[in-house]
Amino acid sequence: MTQADSSTAIAQSGTAKNRQLKPKPRRRGLRILGWVFVCIVVIALIAAGLGVWTVQRSFPTVNGTVSVEGLADEVSVQRDSHGIPTITAETSDDLFFAQGYVHAQDRFWEMDFRRHLTSARLSELFGESQLGTDVFLRTLGWHRVAEQEVEALDAETRSYYEAYADGVNAYLAERQGAELSLEYSVLGLQNSDYAPEPWEPADSVAWLKAMAWDLRTNIEDETARALEAQFLDSKQLEDLYPGYPFGEHPVILADDPAGENVLAANAHASITASDAPLGDRLDSAVAAMGGVALTQLLEKVDSIITAQGEGVGSNSWVVSGQYTATGEPLLANDPHLGAELPSVWTQMQLRCAELTDECPFDVAGFSFSGLPGIVIGHNQDVAWGFTNLTTDVADLFIEATSGDRYWYDGEWRDMTTREETIRVANGEDTVFTVRETIHGPVVSGLTNDFTAIAASPFTEEADGTIIALDAAALPQESDQAEAAVALRWTALDAGSTAKAIFALNIAENFTDFRTAASLFDVPAQNLIYADTSGNIGYQAPGRLPIRADGQQGFLPTPGWDSSFDWQGFVPFEEQPWIYNPRSGYIVTANNAIVNDDYPHFLSRDWDYGYRAARIAELIEERIAEGPIAASDLAEIQMDNEMPAADTLKRAYSSFSTDDDALQSALDLLADWDGQNDLDSAAAAFANVLWEHVTAELVAGHGGDIPRDDQSRFARVFELLLADPQSGWWTEGNSASQQELLEVAANQALAEIQELQGENLANWNWGELHALSLTHGTFGESGIALIEALFNRGPYEASGGSGVVNATGWELGQGYETVTVPSMRMVIDVSDWDASTWQNLTGQSGHAFHKHYTDQTEGWALGAQYAWVYTPEAVDAATTDTLILRPTE
User: Fold this and answer.
1) DSSP assignment, residue 196?
2) What pLDDT, on a 0 to 100 scale, did the predictor assign at position 217?
3) Is 457 within 8 Å of 469 (Cβ atoms)?
4) Distances from the Cα of 364 to the Cαs of 501, 819, 874, in angstroms?
5) Alpha carbon distance 799, 330 (integer Å)
6) What is the CA radius of gyration of the chain?
7) For residues 693-715, average pLDDT
8) Hey, is 386 helix, strand or coil?
9) Is beta strand 557-558 parallel, antiparallel or unpaired with respect to 394-402?
């Protein structure tokens, strides 16, 4: 080997050596990176495991045996594949104890939040951000009224509420913090000191006040009109709020629209709310019978209850066996409320192992978490459903005030005052004074709208004349008084609804049913009825005010003269009812109950009857086709006909344009069947067009005109279309009816192209109208990670506002579904096990639980599930069984 070769070899050897040595740091680096990656994975797995553990440790125990202090005997809790429980107990107290326990298992965060809402203590949970809401609700005093109602309960009914509270508290004794619900982990990030307190009966009863608020009917209309009166005259207000179309749309007492038979029949029968125990079975109770959002604050209150606004109402109907395939009645119900996650309802059956006078319950249906009993459903003998009565049970009174005094019947009176303290998490307590007149709490100063009404109040004379109540119009003797607004509302009086639920649950016949209805004072509801003897019926209960002559609650009422006050309440004997009507069916959809000849004024703010008319039309079609099945009723619940469809099509029937894109869209409209179906391009364009037509109609009239009721606007549009010279077409941005329609069409085309593209084939109502389920507390936290934990969707939705399938959306707020059929049910009286039901979300309130939203996709498509009731059917459907055993 030469030196050169040797040098080369050495060099190569060195190179090889270097090649062996240099990679070592790289491998070490890779190993370090590898270990870092492994550590990250391990940490992620630990975090994921911790997250899963944190989430799942709040899930309820649904199998096995649990010893519970407070029970007298064993109770079984059988759950089906949707997690819906059937509770069987030996005694009534054990039954409601177990219901409280199971509600707490599934929904305790919801219950805890609700009681903080109803007692105006949200600031204790969430801090200063909720202070305005608390001040408003504490002024109304829901929880104070609930406490009075609990004190007035008979011993037996009170024992049910106490047993329920004991069951909730037994569950709280087992768990705390995140063991109760994931929400407590999130709450702990900002309020680590919070721990739930024991449940009390008043916490249950107070939720009825929240539901009454949600179904308070026309207070928004009265408020809106009071503000609109500042820039609209009487004729314009009448145009915006036309009367109910009695000649075109159904009246519930169709056989007797003036209610004369009600008064005649009740001259021979009397029902009186009694304090007798429910265990007396109510046998002696009756004689025999014959066959606009107000402000951002109020919007917040509404959004955390169930959302007042467009679409809040309900459908219910019952069909006699003379028209059904089974020869027995069928009953359908779908209450329309705000879209909530979890749903406002829970499904449940409460069964006494043996029916006795001491334990008379065998009832199934929909309940509210936090409230014992079943609100809507059936027992072994009767079935019932609810819709909102839409009677006017609240008025605004303009008071002449000076400090804490108000002028009334020629003299100064001292307001009733009380000092309230609100505790604020991570903040200082807030102390304020609530002021009340003889009419109710003073609400001006609490919201912008009520304050604006007080600053420039208007009222209405008996002849319809609108009067501005400036300083000169206030009583001169009151000496420089200032105007304030007080709220008179039936739900602020202690009542008996807390007792009515149990009376409904054990009703055996129509007499019992009406007796239970007589206790149901707020919220005022339409109650429909069917029984195993083949009877159907209807009752309109509630505390219904009798107003002074000429007063209709259209605008605020003068408060300084007792002659303007409510004159009492319509006696139950004179409230509308029906039993086995000649028509063979009864439809309620918030439409008019009676016509204007009925001797008592009930409302002028009925729903305008499009849903009721459509339901009646579809029932008549099914009757003509021959016998009606339960599946027919479920199909009717999903009908999507838009109330303004025909008028909108007629408005554009002769419209033509050189714009090919717009003409194609108008051709879609012309060929549309009026159905707001999921995949309908025509429905997408029609609803966007409807948005712009209504916006143009109310534009430029000197103030804000809320478009808060699409059924009302459908009626307004129908009437205005027949009057091309109306100022509503020309006083805004357009010079004629034709110009306004053209402007709206072009705006609609531009918007839908922006939202869904220029290709008509891509337009789709279901996507435009999708439902996003937002958690009631943390769903709008502003923190995407937290929102992702609790929110679900979007889910494409058919239907619309004023539609039988009442998935409401808000004009001016986009097309997203915000109010919904919160549940749907069809009850087959001939075979309880053939009944079906469906909930908006699911049984569970626990995020990530398999029953959190397991019914939502079916809800969107109208699917309903088997509703088992008999012991044999319940046993066959049972997937999990928990035995609650008394501690020894």
Assistant:
1) P
2) 59
3) yes
4) 13, 25, 12
5) 24
6) 31
7) 92
8) strand
9) parallel
Q: What is the reported pLDDT for 290? A: 32
Q: 128-140 b/e with 16+ CB inside 10 Å = b?
A: eebbbbbbbbbbb
Residue-wise pLDDT for 630-667, tens only, equals: 999 999 999 999 999 999 999 999 999 999 999 999 99
Q: CA 767 to CA 679: how far, in whole Å?
A: 8
Cα 566 from chain centre = 28
Give Cα 833 to chain centroid, integer Å. 27
Measured between alpha carbons, how far is 582 from 320 in angstroms, rounded to an integer? 10
pLDDT of residue 287: 29
Eight-state DSSP code of residue 648 = H
Q: CA torsion 55→374→545→275, rounded to 10°?
A: -120
Copy the structure tokens of residue 707: 């478009």
Q: Tell me which DSSP letter residue 589 carries.
A: S
Report CA-CA distances (Å) from 232 to 146, 221, 456, 702, 728: 40, 15, 13, 8, 11
In SS3 terms, 286-344 reads as: ECCCCCCCCCHHHHHHHHCCCCCCCCCEEEEEEECHHHECCCCCEEEEEEEEECCECCC
Cβ 681 vs Cβ 761: under 8 Å? yes
H, E, C per residue of 723-739: CCCCHHHHCCCCCCHHH
Rounded CA gap, 462 and 566, in Å?
15
Q: Tell whether the model's pLDDT for residue 92 goes beyond 80.
A: yes
Residue 772 half-sphere exposure toward CB, CA atoms < 13 A: 12
Q: Does the pTM exceed 0.85?
A: yes
Mention every residue, 6+ apart, whose C-beta is less than 8 A from residue 805.
637, 638, 639, 640, 676, 798, 799, 821, 862
Average pLDDT value for residue range 570-581: 94
Distances (CA, A) of 566 to 273, 405, 489, 716: 21, 21, 11, 31
What is the β-pairing status of strands 525-531 and 362-367? unpaired
- Residue 704's SS3 state is coil
Q: Tokens 């209850």 label which residue?
A: 305
Q: Is the per-residue pLDDT at 44 higher than 90? A: no
Given its phi and psi angles, is residue 127 left (phi above 0), alpha (psi -120 to 50 degrees) or beta? left
Give the CA angle between residues 638, 644, 646 to the nearest 5°: 95
Using CB atoms within 10 Å of the CB of residue 235, give its burial: 0 to 12 exposed, 13 to 18 middle, 19+ buried.
Answer: exposed
The closest of 297, 274, 296 to 284, measured between CA atoms, is: 274
Is the four-CA dihedral 646, 648, 651, 657 of positive or negative sign?
Answer: negative
**Phi, psi at 426, each rounded to 5°:** 60, 30
Q: pLDDT value at position 359?
A: 98
Q: pLDDT (tens digit, 9 = 90+) per residue, 412-461? A: 999 999 999 999 999 999 999 999 999 999 999 988 888 888 888 887 76
Which run of H or of E encompasses 521? none
Question: Taking the CB of residue 4, how many other CB atoms lie within 10 A of it?
Answer: 8
Predicted local confidence at residue 470, as pLDDT: 61
The SS3 of residue 376 is: strand
| pLDDT for res 226 | 84
Cβ–Cβ under 8 Å, residues 214 and 308: yes
Contacts of 210 (CB under 8 A, 6+ apart): 114, 117, 118, 142, 305
Sign of dihedral through CA atoms 68, 70, 74, 78?
Answer: negative
pLDDT tens digits, residue range 794-844? 999 999 999 999 999 999 999 999 999 999 999 999 999 999 999 999 999
Tell me the backbone φ, ψ of residue 697, rounded to 5 degrees: -60, -40
Structure tokens, 95: 């039954």
- Nearest CA to 218 out of 391, 68, 352 is that of 391
How does DSSP classify residue 671?
A: H
pLDDT mean across residues, the chain: 88
To which residue do tokens 């007298």 refer?
72
Identify the pLDDT of residue 199.
98
DSSP string, 212-243: HHHT--THHHHHHHHHHTTT--HHHHHHHSPP
201-210 per-position pLDDT tens digit:
999 999 998 8
